[in-house]
Design a protein that fits this description.
Elements (H helix, E strand, L loop, with lengths): L5 E3 L2 E3 L3 E3 L8 H9 L4 E3 L3 E2 H14 L7 H29 L4 E7 L4 H12 L4 E6 L10 H18 L4 E5 L6 H10 L4 E4 L6 E4 L4 E4 L9 H11 L6 E5 L5 H10 L3 E4 L1 H6 L3 H16 L37
Parallel strand pairs: 3-4, 3-13, 4-6, 5-6, 6-7, 7-8, 8-9, 9-12, 12-13
Antiparallel strand pairs: 1-2, 10-11
Length: 330
């Protein structure tokens, strides 16, 4: 029977399937179910910088009487922020006590990263095995050019690396002019892993109410191609590990990501749609495939189809359909 054990940013995972940050990883019962279903690791539901700020603002509104006192203002704001952070730290601590698999904390936010300095060290104290950071800039202001946004990302990653004394992963989007340049920069900063790619929340429009509503948060299976391409392009170039994310719905896609060079995969939508027990099914199917192909360990085939190891590396770079279109009548 094939051994599915893998190394992901210095952590030993019994298999490469990680439960991605989502409502499924937001409470202890659900985390235990994920472990029982065979997950190799879990990323706890993110704590959002905005969430912490909002909680603090709400507490301030409820305590208007105190607002005239500068000391009280500082105290109340700090106390309400602490309330959320404390609940998050308790979840990590409980998860560490109850689970045998690695527990990855997740921070989500924008800005300069001062909040990381404040909160990340506390994750280490409660036993988090690693930290995943989901940082984003939407680039919607005509006053801010792309270089400035990239510099902000880089400065943010520098702060995160400096402040976080644990394995650190960055969950990023692919909307950079040169994703390769950015990934190399993160790699040079000694980020331990890049999660490719985050699926951002998207707004939609309700045409009856003629108002903005949230878009469907779940991915669809066809969304994995962009991730696959970039794992294939980058896996042999970077020292850091790559974790594949978005649109992974079956064991074949997991195998494809590993062949392209991913060290692990993060799953969310498929677990929400089909139930967490699919993880055991996927690990059995991967194992069967490995047995059929004569592979004993993940490292026997990981990265075998990465760009740098191919005789025709252009296959990963082609963006036009030229040959694949078969137009009827031609
Ligand atoms: C309902 C929902 C909540 C999510 N919450 C978070 C979150 O708190 N932090 C985060 O980094 N990603 C979050 N995600 C994104 C997922 O972790 C994952 O990156 C994304 O859904 C793509 O993976 P998938 O195609 O397997 O769903 C959420 C996704 C969904 C559907």
């Amino acid at each position: 029977m094939a051994n599915l054990q893998t190394n992901y940013m210095g952590l030993t995972l019994k298999n490469p399937i990680i439960a991605s940050s989502s409502p499924l990883t937001s409470n202890l019962d659900s985390l235990k179910r994920l472990e029982d279903a065979g997950a190799g690791a879990v990323v706890i539901k993110s704590i959002f910088q905005e969430q912490v700020d909002k909680e603090a603002d709400m507490t301030m509104e409820m305590n208007e009487a105190f607002l005239t006192h500068a000391d009280a203002y500082g105290f109340l704001k700090g106390a309400s922020e602490d309330h959320l952070i404390d609940a998050y730290l308790t979840l990590i601590e409980d998860a560490k006590k109850s689970l045998d698999i690695p527990v990855i904390a997740s921070l989500n936010g924008s800005g300069k990263g001062d909040w990381i300095k404040e909160y990340a060290p506390r994750f280490k104290v409660v036993g988090a095995d690693a930290i995943e950071i989901n940082h984003y800039e939407i680039g919607s202001s005509r006053k801010i050019d792309s270089r400035t946004i990239e510099k902000r990302y880089i400065n943010f990653a520098k702060i995160a690396r400096k402040e976080i004394d644990l394995p650190l992963s960055l969950k990023i989007g692919s909307n950079f002019s040169s994703p390769s340049w950015m990934m190399h920069y993160f790699d040079d900063l000694k980020i331990d892993s890049l999660v490719l790619f985050n699926k951002f929340y998207n707004p939609d429009i309700d045409i009856e109410k003629m108002s903005i509503k949230p878009g469907i948060p779940m991915s669809s299976p066809s969304e994995y191609y962009n991730t696959l391409r970039w794992i294939g392009l980058m896996s042999e170039e970077l020292n850091c590990d790559l974790c594949a994310n978005t649109g992974i719905y079956d064991s074949s896609t997991i195998i494809k990501m590993l062949l392209a060079g991913a060290s692990s995969v993060e799953l969310c939508s498929v677990l929400m749609k089909d139930g967490v027990d699919v993880i055991n099914k996927f690990t059995s199917e991967i194992s069967e495939w490995m047995d059929k192909k004569g592979f004993n360990a993940i490292d026997d085939f990981k990265g075998q189809l990465a760009q740098e190891r191919m005789s025709d590396p252009t296959k990963w770079e082609r963006t036009q359909y030229v040959k694949s279109l078969h137009i009827k009548g031609n």
